Amino acid sequence: MFQLILLTCLFPLCIGNSIHGQILLDGDANKSVRVSSGSTTTISLQDTSLADAGAVMIKQMQVENVFALPFAFEMEIPDDLSSHNTYTLSVRITKGVNLLYINDQQIRVNVNSKNPITQDIPVVRVSQDEINAAEKVISNDDAKQTSWPEMVGKEGSYAVQYIKEKTGLTNVFTIRQNSAMTMDYRQDRVRIPVDDNGIVSATPIIA
Protein backbone atom coordinates (compact mmCIF):
# COMPACT_ATOMS: atom_id res chain seq x y z
CA MET A 1 0.00 0.00 0.00
CA PHE A 2 2.83 2.41 0.87
CA GLN A 3 4.59 1.78 -2.46
CA LEU A 4 1.39 2.40 -4.41
CA ILE A 5 0.77 5.74 -2.68
CA LEU A 6 4.38 6.80 -3.23
CA LEU A 7 4.25 6.04 -6.96
CA THR A 8 0.97 7.90 -7.31
CA CYS A 9 2.41 11.01 -5.71
CA LEU A 10 5.47 10.97 -7.96
CA PHE A 11 3.42 11.14 -11.14
CA PRO A 12 1.98 14.48 -12.36
CA LEU A 13 -1.67 15.06 -11.60
CA CYS A 14 -3.72 14.21 -14.67
CA ILE A 15 -6.74 16.15 -15.81
CA GLY A 16 -9.90 15.01 -17.52
CA ASN A 17 -10.10 14.33 -21.21
CA SER A 18 -12.19 17.27 -22.42
CA ILE A 19 -12.77 21.00 -22.11
CA HIS A 20 -16.14 22.51 -22.96
CA GLY A 21 -17.61 25.97 -22.85
CA GLN A 22 -18.80 28.84 -25.02
CA ILE A 23 -17.09 31.43 -27.19
CA LEU A 24 -18.71 34.71 -26.12
CA LEU A 25 -18.61 38.11 -27.79
CA ASP A 26 -17.16 40.52 -25.19
CA GLY A 27 -17.68 37.77 -22.61
CA ASP A 28 -21.44 38.39 -22.66
CA ALA A 29 -23.65 35.31 -22.98
CA ASN A 30 -26.62 37.56 -23.81
CA LYS A 31 -24.93 39.20 -26.80
CA SER A 32 -25.47 37.42 -30.12
CA VAL A 33 -23.78 38.08 -33.44
CA ARG A 34 -24.01 36.48 -36.86
CA VAL A 35 -20.66 35.29 -38.18
CA SER A 36 -19.80 35.51 -41.87
CA SER A 37 -20.21 32.31 -43.84
CA GLY A 38 -16.89 30.86 -44.88
CA SER A 39 -15.21 31.71 -41.58
CA THR A 40 -12.87 29.39 -39.67
CA THR A 41 -12.77 29.19 -35.87
CA THR A 42 -9.50 27.90 -34.41
CA ILE A 43 -9.35 26.90 -30.73
CA SER A 44 -5.91 26.17 -29.28
CA LEU A 45 -4.69 24.73 -25.98
CA GLN A 46 -1.07 25.65 -25.24
CA ASP A 47 1.50 25.07 -22.52
CA THR A 48 2.69 28.56 -21.57
CA SER A 49 4.68 27.59 -18.48
CA LEU A 50 8.01 29.06 -19.63
CA ALA A 51 7.93 32.84 -19.85
CA ASP A 52 11.21 33.03 -21.78
CA ALA A 53 10.28 30.37 -24.33
CA GLY A 54 7.61 29.97 -26.95
CA ALA A 55 4.29 28.36 -26.14
CA VAL A 56 3.99 24.63 -26.81
CA MET A 57 0.90 23.58 -28.74
CA ILE A 58 -0.96 20.81 -26.91
CA LYS A 59 -4.15 20.55 -28.96
CA GLN A 60 -5.80 22.53 -31.73
CA MET A 61 -9.19 22.17 -33.35
CA GLN A 62 -10.84 24.01 -36.22
CA VAL A 63 -14.54 24.50 -36.90
CA GLU A 64 -15.72 25.71 -40.28
CA ASN A 65 -18.68 28.03 -40.81
CA VAL A 66 -19.65 28.80 -37.22
CA PHE A 67 -23.12 30.30 -37.68
CA ALA A 68 -23.21 32.67 -34.72
CA LEU A 69 -21.79 33.63 -31.34
CA PRO A 70 -22.21 32.45 -28.62
CA PHE A 71 -20.84 29.15 -29.90
CA ALA A 72 -20.58 26.03 -27.74
CA PHE A 73 -17.44 23.95 -28.16
CA GLU A 74 -15.90 20.79 -26.75
CA MET A 75 -12.26 19.84 -27.16
CA GLU A 76 -10.74 16.49 -26.29
CA ILE A 77 -7.36 16.85 -24.59
CA PRO A 78 -4.56 14.54 -23.41
CA ASP A 79 -5.09 12.93 -20.02
CA ASP A 80 -1.48 13.33 -18.88
CA LEU A 81 -1.19 17.12 -18.47
CA SER A 82 0.72 18.19 -15.37
CA SER A 83 -0.86 20.35 -12.68
CA HIS A 84 2.56 22.04 -12.29
CA ASN A 85 2.36 23.60 -15.76
CA THR A 86 0.34 26.55 -17.02
CA TYR A 87 -2.14 25.86 -19.82
CA THR A 88 -4.05 28.53 -21.73
CA LEU A 89 -6.82 28.59 -24.32
CA SER A 90 -6.96 30.91 -27.31
CA VAL A 91 -9.44 31.52 -30.11
CA ARG A 92 -9.11 33.06 -33.56
CA ILE A 93 -11.99 33.50 -36.00
CA THR A 94 -10.81 34.25 -39.51
CA LYS A 95 -12.21 34.58 -42.99
CA GLY A 96 -9.54 34.13 -45.61
CA VAL A 97 -6.62 36.34 -44.58
CA ASN A 98 -8.82 38.58 -42.41
CA LEU A 99 -8.83 38.18 -38.63
CA LEU A 100 -12.38 38.83 -37.41
CA TYR A 101 -12.41 37.93 -33.70
CA ILE A 102 -9.78 37.01 -31.12
CA ASN A 103 -9.50 36.65 -27.35
CA ASP A 104 -7.50 39.58 -25.98
CA GLN A 105 -6.77 38.17 -22.53
CA GLN A 106 -5.03 35.08 -21.22
CA ILE A 107 -7.50 32.27 -20.50
CA ARG A 108 -5.97 29.82 -18.05
CA VAL A 109 -7.28 26.28 -17.80
CA ASN A 110 -7.68 24.99 -14.26
CA VAL A 111 -6.26 21.48 -14.44
CA ASN A 112 -7.64 20.70 -11.00
CA SER A 113 -11.22 21.09 -12.21
CA LYS A 114 -13.50 18.11 -12.48
CA ASN A 115 -13.84 16.38 -15.82
CA PRO A 116 -15.11 17.73 -18.12
CA ILE A 117 -13.43 21.08 -17.53
CA THR A 118 -15.73 24.06 -18.11
CA GLN A 119 -14.16 27.24 -19.51
CA ASP A 120 -15.80 30.00 -21.53
CA ILE A 121 -13.65 32.14 -23.86
CA PRO A 122 -14.48 35.83 -24.42
CA VAL A 123 -13.54 37.31 -27.80
CA VAL A 124 -13.51 40.83 -29.22
CA ARG A 125 -13.78 42.27 -32.70
CA VAL A 126 -10.40 43.02 -34.22
CA SER A 127 -11.64 45.81 -36.48
CA GLN A 128 -15.12 46.83 -37.49
CA ASP A 129 -13.84 47.35 -41.04
CA GLU A 130 -12.89 43.68 -41.21
CA ILE A 131 -16.31 42.42 -40.16
CA ASN A 132 -18.53 41.42 -43.06
CA ALA A 133 -21.39 43.85 -43.62
CA ALA A 134 -23.86 40.99 -43.22
CA GLU A 135 -22.88 40.53 -39.58
CA LYS A 136 -25.10 42.29 -37.13
CA VAL A 137 -25.26 42.36 -33.33
CA ILE A 138 -28.77 41.47 -32.29
CA SER A 139 -30.63 41.05 -29.03
CA ASN A 140 -30.71 37.62 -27.42
CA ASP A 141 -34.50 37.36 -27.88
CA ASP A 142 -34.27 38.16 -31.60
CA ALA A 143 -31.44 35.65 -32.04
CA LYS A 144 -33.54 32.85 -30.56
CA GLN A 145 -36.78 33.65 -32.40
CA THR A 146 -37.60 31.10 -35.10
CA SER A 147 -41.15 32.12 -36.04
CA TRP A 148 -43.03 35.39 -36.47
CA PRO A 149 -46.81 34.96 -36.00
CA GLU A 150 -47.13 38.73 -35.56
CA MET A 151 -46.45 39.12 -39.30
CA VAL A 152 -49.70 37.38 -40.35
CA GLY A 153 -51.95 39.91 -42.09
CA LYS A 154 -49.12 42.29 -42.98
CA GLU A 155 -47.61 43.05 -46.38
CA GLY A 156 -45.15 40.36 -47.45
CA SER A 157 -42.51 42.94 -48.39
CA TYR A 158 -42.76 44.50 -44.94
CA ALA A 159 -42.37 41.07 -43.29
CA VAL A 160 -39.24 40.36 -45.34
CA GLN A 161 -37.59 43.62 -44.29
CA TYR A 162 -38.69 43.28 -40.65
CA ILE A 163 -37.29 39.75 -40.22
CA LYS A 164 -34.03 40.65 -41.98
CA GLU A 165 -33.49 43.58 -39.64
CA LYS A 166 -34.38 41.59 -36.52
CA THR A 167 -32.27 38.52 -37.28
CA GLY A 168 -29.47 39.64 -39.56
CA LEU A 169 -30.45 36.86 -41.97
CA THR A 170 -30.33 37.58 -45.69
CA ASN A 171 -32.12 34.49 -47.05
CA VAL A 172 -35.65 35.73 -46.26
CA PHE A 173 -38.31 35.66 -48.98
CA THR A 174 -42.02 35.31 -49.75
CA ILE A 175 -43.64 32.25 -51.32
CA ARG A 176 -47.17 31.81 -52.67
CA GLN A 177 -49.36 29.93 -50.19
CA ASN A 178 -49.85 26.22 -50.96
CA SER A 179 -46.99 26.26 -53.48
CA ALA A 180 -44.52 23.36 -53.66
CA MET A 181 -41.44 23.69 -51.42
CA THR A 182 -38.25 21.74 -50.88
CA MET A 183 -38.27 19.65 -47.69
CA ASP A 184 -34.71 20.38 -46.56
CA TYR A 185 -34.19 22.36 -43.34
CA ARG A 186 -31.89 25.37 -43.22
CA GLN A 187 -31.33 27.47 -40.12
CA ASP A 188 -30.43 30.53 -42.20
CA ARG A 189 -33.64 30.60 -44.29
CA VAL A 190 -37.07 32.11 -43.59
CA ARG A 191 -40.04 31.43 -45.85
CA ILE A 192 -42.99 33.82 -45.70
CA PRO A 193 -46.28 32.46 -47.13
CA VAL A 194 -48.39 35.12 -48.86
CA ASP A 195 -51.78 35.10 -50.58
CA ASP A 196 -52.62 36.37 -54.07
CA ASN A 197 -52.58 39.93 -52.76
CA GLY A 198 -49.10 39.64 -51.24
CA ILE A 199 -50.42 39.52 -47.66
CA VAL A 200 -48.78 37.15 -45.17
CA SER A 201 -51.22 34.25 -44.81
CA ALA A 202 -49.38 31.96 -42.37
CA THR A 203 -46.64 32.24 -39.76
CA PRO A 204 -43.17 32.75 -41.27
CA ILE A 205 -40.67 30.26 -39.84
CA ILE A 206 -37.02 29.32 -40.13
CA ALA A 207 -36.99 26.22 -42.31
UniProtKB/TrEMBL annotation:
Domain of life: Eukaryota
Biological process annotations from GO: response to wounding
Keyword Signal attached: yes
Keywords, alphabetical: Protease inhibitor, Serine protease inhibitor, Signal
Residues spanning the signal sequence: 1-16
GO molecular function: serine-type endopeptidase inhibitor activity
InterPro entries, per database record: Pilotin (IPR039366), Prot_inh_pot1 (IPR000864), Prot_inh_pot1_sf (IPR036354)
Classification via PANTHER family: PROTEIN, PUTATIVE, EXPRESSED-RELATED (PTHR33091), SUBTILISIN INHIBITOR 1 (PTHR33091:SF29)
Family: Belongs to the protease inhibitor I13 (potato type I serine protease inhibitor) family.
Name the UniProt record assigns to this protein: Uncharacterized protein
Lineage: Eukaryota, Metazoa, Spiralia, Gnathifera, Rotifera
